[in-house]
Design goal:
Distance between the termini: 36 Å
Number of helices: 0
Radius of gyration: 13 Å
Order of helices and strands: EEEEEEEEEEE
Strand content: over 45%
Helix content: under 10%
């Protein structure tokens, strides 16, 4: 399974960040897997943002729930993240990852079964 994040490198404060994870080698609707968004701000640890499960169930981090939306396009085998009202504190490397259980407390990206290389997103005017 391969995952690849895509989205803008730079987002202005107050705007909405939109990222898409393209998945190949496996279906996002089968296998009882969870498809996650995780980020790592500079100098900080991983922060789990949310996930969409194989059956379409969606889970969010309580701290980000009010600003986060996760969706999927099963016809394209991809899932997406939208983070609204961004601030410079949202500057981070954003990863998508697949796991066989809902892991909201990963310390290392390697705790997931598969993950994308990550994309740097900077929030700045």
């Amino acid at each position: 399974v391969q995952l690849q994040e895509s989205g803008p490198d730079l987002v202005k404060p107050s705007q909405t960040l939109s990222l898409t994870c393209f998945v190949s080698g496996g279906s996002i609707t089968t296998g009882y897997y969870y498809w996650n968004w995780i980020r790592q701000p500079p100098g900080k640890g991983l922060e789990w943002m949310g996930a969409i499960a194989y059956d379409g169930s969606i889970y969010y981090s309580p701290s980000l729930k009010s600003r986060t939306s996760i969706s999927r396009d099963t016809s394209k085998n991809q899932f997406s993240l939208q983070l609204s009202s961004v601030t410079p504190d949202d500057t981070a490397v954003y990863h998508c990852a697949m796991g066989d259980y809902l892991n909201a407390h990963a310390v290392r990206i390697e705790e997931y079964d598969y993950w994308g290389q990550g994309t740097q997103v900077t929030v700045s005017s």
